TrEMBL record:
Keywords in alphabetical order: Nucleus, Repeat, rRNA processing, WD repeat
Cellular component aspect of the GO annotation: Pwp2p-containing subcomplex of 90S preribosome; small-subunit processome
PANTHER family linked: U3 SMALL NUCLEOLAR RNA-ASSOCIATED PROTEIN 18 HOMOLOG (PTHR18359:SF0), WD-REPEAT PROTEIN-RELATED (PTHR18359)
Region (Disordered), start-end ranges: 1-28, 183-237, 490-509
GO BP terms in the entry: rRNA processing
Protein name: Uncharacterized protein
Compartment(s): Nucleus, Nucleolus
Biased composition (Acidic residues): 193-202
């Protein structure tokens, strides 16, 4: 049965036609408000663009007053009818800036001009950007002073970079690569004839120079030249007044194997197997007692010996004090305190490399002109090779053919010669000017001689220590020694006689029972310090010229430890420094 069409003969609209009819219908008020709230309209989009431009302008200025905003809006309304070509201009910046900002820009320019490589590009808007460091808690760490507040954007970036480098320093390989690149760019291909050989791979970084510090009388008091004009102090023979002061260092990473006072300045040099040389200012007064002036780290060289080298002819303009230091290597180093440079010396030692297998044992002459190195030979005996401290050339060599080899040597006080002692007790006195042995004698009752030391005015006193703990003190002014020197030689070379060349010591000391490792005279020759590192608290002080051991010091409670180094300093020997195997340096003041 077919359905009947609707009235009027028209067909009913299909579903698609009904949907199209719905789309063209006008939107009512509720629908329009809902659509505007969700998607916005054209007017709202333009307002958003205007607000975004306004916020972008505010980002370039930290402080903007309300009156300025009102005036800006009024100007915008007034510019509505202005043509487009008149609305834009080239902004070249203001002619004048605030004083604080100008100073920061000038300082930034100076820092960039002093740097090695300037920035390839920077944003000019950074100069107009102002940032307050005081109002933000996280930015207060970037201030240089408490009053520091508003800075420019470029200065802000540099301070952020500086803070980052403080927290994360540049790695060592980066500094080495930069230094190597600078050396390769400015290096010369010409070979140097100097006896000081500096290898790039072995070069040490420069150390902070002490030129200003050494010249400054206010920061580092130099010993007065009028000391000799004052009355010379005289120590008592049996009791000594010793006052302990603040320790230079209570402990360290290794033992203190070398310790020495400067002859003119209140400086103390210390070093050991930790591969670090440290320079202290001897000043035990609070609040900062015995501060560290500078230090030098030498990789791969456990230090054994270090000594000050004062020039023979001092200069009033530049202090030419150097430090010589060595380890168990075929080379040694020199360190200029005034310039802060370090040089490695190898070439002059190549002439006798078969005998000089190590430079760990050396001594500098008191005059500062010579350096003596102990060497041993496979065939027995040994020698003392003397170098010039200025040219590093070989001056002379003293050969000693003694059983057991060379134990030790020490310079005469005038630096014109030295005395060499062999392990069998044979003592040879060598003159650098004549380049020969002028005297040879034997230590009485010597059993395994270990160390020798010369001190006093005109090299009067000679002290010789042995492995049994006995210390013999000889007086050159005694009749026995004078008769030995006046005896006629048995041949054309040194005086060697069986009886006359065995002088009797002025005193034999047996207070120590272990091998003697250190013998040190005071600068004025009134005291001798002897110690052994093979037993705890093994140290004694001897009065001269009576050659008596002080009975009141050290006591059982004196914290010495195992003595690994010893030094007497000051023009009159008023300072006693003791280094031990725990890395500590104790300091005592010797009073009248």
């Amino acid at each position: 049965m077919s359905s009947m069409p609707p009235e009027g003969g028209r067909k009913a609209p299909t579903r698609r036609q009904q949907h199209r009819t719905t789309d063209v219908l006008e939107k009512d008020d509720i629908e329009q408000r809902l659509e505007k709230a969700l998607f916005g309209d054209e007017a709202g989009f333009l307002d958003s663009l205007s607000a975004a431009r306004h916020e972008e302008g505010k980002a370039l200025q930290l402080y903007v007053s309300g009156s300025e905003l009102d005036s800006a809006s009024e100007q915008d309304e007034d510019l509505g009818d202005v043509p487009d070509e008149d609305l834009f201009f080239l902004d070249a910046g203001t002619d004048t800036l605030p004083a604080a900002i100008s100073e920061q820009l000038d300082r930034t320019g100076e820092e960039e001009s002093s740097g090695a490589s300037p920035a390839a590009w920077y944003d000019s808007d950074d100069d107009r950007l102002t940032i307050s460091l005081a109002t933000h808690t996280r930015l207060r760490k970037l201030r240089d002073t408490e009053a520091d507040d508003v800075i420019t954007g470029r200065e802000y970036g540099q301070r952020l970079r500086r803070q980052y480098e403080r927290l994360h320093p540049a790695p060592e390989w980066l500094s080495y690569a930069r230094r190597k690149r600078r050396m390769s760019n400015g290096a010369s291909h010409a070979e140097s004839d100097s006896d000081v050989s500096m290898d790039e791979s072995d070069s040490l970084p420069p150390v902070k120079p002490l030129a200003e510090l050494l010249r400054s009388v206010g920061s580092l008091t130099r010993t007065s030249n009028n000391t000799h004009d004052r009355k010379r102090r005289k120590l008592r023979s049996e009791v000594i007044d010793v006052q302990r002061t603040k320790d230079v260092t209570p402990a360290g990473p290794s033992s203190i194997d070398t310790l020495e006072f400067h002859s003119e300045y209140p400086l103390l040099l210390a070093g050991g197997p930790c591969q670090t040389l440290t320079l202290y200012h001897v000043s035990p007064q609070p609040p900062n007692p015995n501060p560290v002036l500078t230090s030098l780290h030498v990789k791969g060289s456990p230090l054994h010996t270090a000594s000050f080298c004062t020039p023979a002819e001092p200069s009033d303009e530049v202090d030419e004090t150097r430090v010589f230091f060595s380890s168990r290597r075929r080379y040694f180093h020199t360190w200029s305190l005034s310039a802060g440079t370090v040089a490695k010396v190898t070439r002059p030692l190549s002439t006798f490399k078969h005998d000089q297998r190590t430079t760990e044992h050396f001594k500098l002459s008191p005059c500062g002109r010579y350096m003596g190195l102990i060497s041993s030979s496979k065939k027995g005996g040994g020698s003392i090779n003397v170098l010039s401290t200025t040219s590093m050339q070989l001056v002379c060599s003293c050969r000693v053919d003694a059983q057991g080899g060379v134990s030790d040597f020490d310079w005469w006080r005038d630096g014109e010669g030295f005395a060499v002692v062999a392990k069998n007790g044979e003592v040879s006195e060598y003159s650098v000017a004549e380049k020969r042995i002028i005297e040879r004698w034997w230590d009485e009752g010597s059993v395994g001689t270990t160390v020798i030391s010369i001190g006093g005015e005109d090299s009067r006193w000679i002290a010789i220590g042995s492995s049994s703990g006995i210390v013999n003190i000889y007086d050159r002014k005694s009749p026995a020694f004078s008769s030995m020197l006046a005896a006629e030689p048995t041949d054309a070379h040194p005086k060697v006689t069986s009886n006359q060349n065995r002088p009797s010591p002025a005193r034999s000391l047996d207070q120590l029972t272990t091998p003697i490792s250190h013998l040190v005279f005071s600068p004025d020759g009134q005291m001798l310090a002897m110690a052994s590192r093979w037993k705890k608290d093994a140290l004694r002080l001897v009065h001269l010229p009576s050659c008596t051991v002080y009975r009141n010091w050290p006591t059982d409670k004196t914290p010495l430890g195992r003595v690994s180094s010893l030094a007497l300093g000051g023009r009159n020997g008023e300072w006693l420094a003791v280094g031990n195997e725990q890395g500590g340096i104790r300091l005592w003041e010797i009073r009248d």
